[in-house]
Amino acid sequence: MKNEFKGLIVQGDKKFSLKNHKTDFTGGYNKEKAKDALVNSKIELNHLQEKLYASGKHSLLIIFQAMDAAGKDSALEHVMSGLNPQGCQVYSFKVPTSKEYQHDFLWRHYKALPERGRIGIHNRSHYENVLVCKVHPEYILSENIPGFSDVKKVNKNFWQQRYKSIKNFEEHLTANGTVILKFFLNVSKAEQKQRFLDRIEDPTKNWKFSSGDIKERALWDKYMDAYEDAINATSTEELPWYIIPADKKWFTRLAISEIIVDKLKSLDLEFPVLGEEETAKLSETQSILLSE
Asked: Which tens digits make up the pLDDT trace of 139-155?
């Protein structure tokens, strides 16, 4: 991995703190240089996706977590635009349905996992259950978990058990061929404010704005604490978090693309090689076609 992206990794070997990660970091790139680099990165990503699909041994799960207006949707649009849509699937998780509440909190996320050979993108993910639910512990009561009929019982032990469940879930997936990349798009509060104002002032962006976004913005510090706790509890050497600076969208997109490319390269993907019998059939078929 290029040096300018190595500092974005949190591997759990020391305590993570958001104050140590600049939201406007650009790794020595300017906008034009980053755009050119992204074009090349997407070409490489397209080739690697083809190998991933053809080999059929691994799946790739990409997780995006962020505050509102951090740029998740635009990152998806720009980074993934070069991929073959037949090999991708995107899920955006909203408030659980009544049916989903009848199962454990991981159930709906397990159902949305990519099969081998495919890339799955989760726009928000199972981490919402230790982020928004930690800021709003009253949401836990909707899960009807035995012994948790009062929000006061949703204590430190509860969250530690939930982090453990998430780690076990991810370790199980990894052991069975799913490669997981976890991205936190780290936007500043000032930049979020400007993006909200842009959405309000531009009629073509009004649809992106929700009055509920302002209510959650008022809880910014609680969300930052929840992110720090979740990342510290679940970032490991094998399954690290990547803290992506999100104030400059052009760098955000490049960083995400480069990290995905680097991870896929590490798998040493190869196209399947046919056996002697199948190779012989190819030659036979070629002769038939040429003789027509």
From this structure: 999 999 999 999 999 99
Residues sharing a CB contact under 8 Å with residue 109, sequence separation 6 or more, in sequence order: 93, 122, 125, 126
Phi, psi dihedral angles at 219 (to 5 degrees): -105, 25
Digit-coded pLDDT (tens) for 43-82 = 999 999 999 999 999 999 999 999 999 999 999 999 998 8
Indicate the angle between helix axes 72-79 and 249-265, nearest 10 degrees: 60
Model pLDDT, residue 97: 96
The residues with which 10 forms a beta bridge, in sequence order, are 241
CA distance 267 to 270: 9
Note the pLDDT of residue 178: 98
Answer positive or negative: Cα dihedral of 241, 197, 215, 225.
positive
CB-CB contact of 25 with 250 (8 Å): no
In 10 A of CB 142, how many CB atoms? 13
First to last CA, the chain: 51
Q: Report the relative pairing of strands 88-92 and 178-186 from DSSP bridges.
A: unpaired
Cα separations in angstroms, 8 against 22, 33, 56, 122, 212: 10, 19, 29, 20, 30
Q: Which residues lie below 8 Å from residue 153, measured CB to CB, with a gap of 6+?
A: 147
239: nearest Cα among 155, 183, 160, 159: 183
Q: How many residues does the chain have?
A: 292
